[in-house]
Amino acid sequence: MDLKIALLWFAPLLCGALIPIHAGMNAELSRAAGHPLWATMLSFGISFVFLVVALVWLRPTLPSLPSLYAAPPWAWVGGVIGVIYVMATMVLIPRFGAAAFIAAVVAGQMTMALALDQNGLLGNEPRPADFFRISGAVLSIAGVLIMQLGKAP
Asked: For residue 76, what is the DSSP state?
């Protein structure tokens, strides 16, 4: 494997490592704020301030109105998914634990990613769900089930 490509894989691994940390931070913020909605508002408020600082510092070109109008309607609701995810971390991490929650998230991600790739949805090129890809998704789901063995009902 090309060294540059190998180094590119570090970015998603780092992002993956940050997800349980982020989830734990969200859960703690929810406890401190007294309600997941307030904690979500605070979290996204801090994100907004960080984005403004990044925009001022990096000065990217403003998008044109025609290019924004050209975006499909579904492209505009990603923020809603972000709110749902952040709130889920706040409510479910304390109940399930970080490892079980993240294992279930990964299993859900793998399953949906296979469906999106198979059908070339959301602007991606189709990638067939072959034996190896399906086996990986099944193993991730099996991991969630194995983690739950021995848990009291």
From this structure: G
pTM of the prediction? Answer: 0.79
What letter does residue 75 receive in the DSSP assignment?
G
State what percent of residues in the chain have pLDDT above 90.
61
The rounded distance, in Å, linking the Cα atoms of 96 and 91 is 9
pLDDT, one tens digit per residue, over 51-86 is 999 999 999 999 999 999 999 999 999 999 999 999
- Residue boundaries of the structural domains of the chain: 3-148
The answer to whether residues 102 and 19 touch, using CB atoms and an 8 Å cutoff, is: yes
> What are the Cα distances from residue 103, in Å, to 32, 43, 128, 143?
25, 23, 24, 7
Helices 36-58 and 10-33, interaxial angle, to 10°?
130
Q: Whose CA is closest to 88, among 49, 30, 141?
A: 30
Q: Which residues contact 129 (CB under 8 A, 6 or more apart)?
A: 114, 115, 117, 118
